[in-house]
């Protein structure tokens, strides 16, 4: 970091005790920078690094089991399914080797297999080798700023196992499950399984476990899911995070107009991506400042939980790599210390309530230094 009051503040906290904070939200577990996502190992790491809220992205299997997977159709890049011939043959698109005119290809979905078959898989770092001639070669492709050191059969989780795991951690940890919207390859209703039943099964799993709704921060990109929860289980729905990802000026403008509609419907929390919240500004446009969209959310009386921190690799190359999470400030991003400058704007200028992170320790340290406690369960109506 360059010398600044922010750097001095952060240095002043280096010998202070660090405690669990709900401001730090374990993205896909919170140890995702080094451990396979959506696995027990990533959840364990996020919890040990102080994340007070831990995530499970919820997808469904062919027999309607609910499991932790970021996409219904990413098993070919996040697990070893292609190395299991009995399961690989069930994939929506079985493995096809690369040739002179086409890259290697595969598409394996949770809906292709049963929940028991899913539980037999090993989680791995997300990645693939487009030049692969064999399923074994296809397993590589992890970004070089991550590591495969811990790709030693990460334990994949069902939603049931995730709830028990998070509930077992010391420190009263909380839950943020995301109901994943099925991709076009898995059209809904899926063999009679409707989106509404999927959303209800998602709620029912927590109810059966007697988890108080104040501990749950459900998420969805699908506005209809949020409205369904608000109407059918308001205690659950009032803490729901309406996720958003708008990348064009037109979409952002439409999103701004819809904020008041969402607020009127009972939505309390918006979950935008980080680049939606920040922009260049200040003298010569050389500083990170709140975006117009961030200001619009606050003006409509909505809280913000943002995503995703430390998912970008070295900041010196974000512009060259066209890295998404720094896309709106790439022209003024040069060094890794700006991660803290970004976090300062998000928390102390915009006032976000929480931040999804791939390495929870960084956000935990910052939150402890500035006294950021995260969203307060049970405080919404």
From TrEMBL:
Biological processes, Gene Ontology terms: glycerol metabolic process; lipid metabolic process
Gene3D superfamilies reported in the protein's UniProt record: Phosphatidylinositol (PI) phosphodiesterase (3.20.20.190)
SUPFAM superfamilies assigned: PLC-like phosphodiesterases
EC number of this enzyme: 3.1.4.46
GP-PDE domain residues: 22-350
Catalyzed reactions: a sn-glycero-3-phosphodiester + H2O = an alcohol + sn-glycerol 3-phosphate + H(+)
Annotated Pfam families: GDPD (PF03009)
Annotated keywords: Glycerol metabolism, Hydrolase, Signal
InterPro entries associated with the record: GP_PDE_dom, PLC-like_Pdiesterase_TIM-brl
Positions of transmembrane segments: none
Molecular-function annotations in GO: glycerophosphodiester phosphodiesterase activity
Superkingdom to which the source organism belongs: Eukaryota
Family designation: Belongs to the glycerophosphoryl diester phosphodiesterase family.
Protein name: glycerophosphodiester phosphodiesterase
């Amino acid at each position: 970091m360059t010398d600044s009051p922010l750097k001095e503040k952060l240095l002043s906290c280096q010998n202070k005790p660090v405690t669990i904070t709900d401001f730090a939200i374990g993205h896909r577990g919170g140890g995702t920078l080094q451990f396979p996502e959506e696995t027990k190992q990533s959840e364990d790491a996020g919890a040990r690094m102080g994340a007070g809220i831990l995530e499970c992205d919820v997808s469904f299997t062919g027999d309607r089991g609910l499991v932790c997977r970021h996409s219904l159709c990413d098993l070919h890049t996040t697990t070893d399914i292609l190395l299991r011939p009995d399961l690989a043959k069930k994939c929506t698109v079985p493995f096809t080797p690369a040739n002179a005119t086409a890259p290697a290809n595969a598409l394996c979905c949770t809906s292709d297999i049963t929940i028991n078959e899913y539980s037999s898989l090993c989680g791995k770092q997300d990645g693939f080798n487009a030049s692969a001639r064999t399923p074994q070669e296809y397993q590589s492709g992890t970004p070089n700023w991550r590591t495969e050191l811990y790709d030693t059969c990460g334990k994949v989780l069902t939603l049931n196992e995730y709830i028990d795991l998070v509930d077992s951690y010391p420190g009263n940890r909380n839950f943020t499950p995301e109901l994943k919207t099925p991709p076009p390859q898995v059209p809904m209703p899926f063999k009679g399984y409707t989106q509404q039943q999927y959303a209800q099964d998602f709620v029912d799993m927590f109810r059966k476990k007697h988890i108080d709704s104040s501990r749950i921060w459900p998420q969805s990109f699908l506005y209809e899911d949020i409205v369904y929860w608000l109407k059918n289980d308001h205690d659950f729905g009032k803490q729901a995070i309406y996720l958003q990802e708008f990348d064009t000026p037109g979409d952002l403008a439409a999103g701004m107009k819809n904020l008041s509609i969402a607020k009127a419907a009972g939505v309390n929390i918006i979950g935008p991506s980080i680049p939606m919240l920040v922009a260049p500004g200040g003298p010569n446009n050389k500083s990170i400042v709140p975006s117009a969209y961030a200001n619009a959310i606050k003006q409509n009386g909505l809280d913000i939980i943002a995503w995703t921190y430390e998912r970008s690799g070295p900041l010196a190359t974000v512009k060259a790599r066209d890295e998404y999470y720094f896309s709106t400030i790439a022209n003024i991003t040069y060094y890794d210390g700006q991660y803290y400058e970004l976090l300062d704007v998000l928390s102390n200028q915009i006032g976000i309530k929480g931040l999804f992170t791939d390495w929870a320790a960084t956000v935990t340290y910052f939150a402890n230094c500035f006294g950021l406690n995260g969203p307060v369960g049970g405080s919404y109506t």
